[in-house]
Design brief:
The chain has one domain: TIM Barrel, CATH 3.20.20. Strand 6, helix 7 and strand 7 form a beta-alpha-beta unit. 40% of the residues are buried. The chain has 248 residues and is of the alpha/beta class. It has an 8-stranded parallel β-sheet. It contains 9 helices and 8 strands. It is globular and about 45 Å long. Bound molecules: pyridoxal-5'-phosphate. Pyridoxal-5'-phosphate (PLP) binds next to strand 8 and helix 9. The site of pyridoxal-5'-phosphate (PLP) has 14 residues, from strand 8 and helix 9.
Length: 248
């Protein structure tokens, strides 16, 4: 069942890449395992998953320690509070939601203490929804310029969450905008955007994301089944839940 879901997602990624003449090897599947039990994560890894994504640092830390014997990579893909950088730095292999300099500074300081670097994606708010985390598109250039000061952070590219809409075509504009921002940043100064990867696309819209240039898609429910917890538990959107003061 889980292996069938995984195979189906991979086939859909390959088909989407094929439609736009992309090499499917350019697209990495991050299996988003939030709320998923360790037992089922093991099954997914046995079925071929090698990259896992978790939204919350506490959950990532707990699962990583419990599943330490598995040769997999863990991406932290959700909003991170500055007071939680310690676990992020210790346990995440990459971080997809860098959206403010205060956080960059806190991560960099910790990383220097641990003597390691961290792959990061800069999160951009491409939907214009006020409740979403991420930099405003027009703030990206200045942000990338500042990031060079934080030497432990290795910028790999950009990340976004598209507008919430049951119609995946509505996500296309968000994804196209992220790609355009990447292209513009590259043109201005290719050193500031690293390999210029694009982390975008989830269960509802990953095929559109691949068509628009995604290099990492973050897919949970299409692999593991529907989550019991509403997304508002993980995202500030729509829930009325606001980020802690001083954290934006
Ligand atoms: C949960 C989550 C996803 C995956 O969503 P699904 O609907 O399970 O595919 C992608 N990105 C982020 C940041 C998430 O929190």
């Amino acid at each position: 069942m889980l292996a069938d879901n995984l195979a189906a997602v991979l086939a859909r990624i390959a088909a989407a890449a094929g439609r736009v003449g992309r090499d499917v090897a350019e697209v990495r599947l991050l299996a988003v395992s939030k709320t998923v039990s360790e037992e089922r994560i093991r099954l997914a890894v046995q079925a071929g998953v090698c990259d896992l994504g978790e939204n919350k640092v506490q959950e990532l830390t707990r699962k990583r320690l419990a599943l330490g014997e598995m040769d997999v990579s863990w991406a932290l893909i959700g909003h991170l509070q500055t007071n939680k950088v310690r676990d992020a730095v210790r346990h995440a292999d990459e971080f997809h939601a860098l959206d403010r300099l205060k956080l960059a500074e806190a991560l960099d300081r910790r990383l220097q203490g641990e003597g390691r670097g961290l792959d990061v994606f800069v999160q951009v708010n491409t939907s214009g929804e006020a409740s979403k985390f991420g930099l405003a598109p027009e703030a990206l250039t200045g942000f990338l310029d500042e990031l060079v000061h934080y030497r432990s952070l290795r910028v790999r590219g950009l990340m976004t969450l598209a507008a919430f809409d049951p119609d995946p075509e509505r996500s296309r504009g968000c994804f196209a905008l992220l790609r355009r921002l990447r292209d513009e940043a590259r043109q201005r100064d290719p050193d500031l955007i690293g390999p210029g990867e694009l982390s975008m696309g989830m269960s509802g819209d990953f095929e559109v994301a691949v068509e628009e240039g995604a290099t990492s898609v973050r897919v949970g429910q299409s692999i593991f089944g529907a989550r019991a917890l509403p997304d508002s538990h993980y995202w500030p959107d729509e829930s009325g839940l606001t980020p802690p003061t001083g954290e934006r």
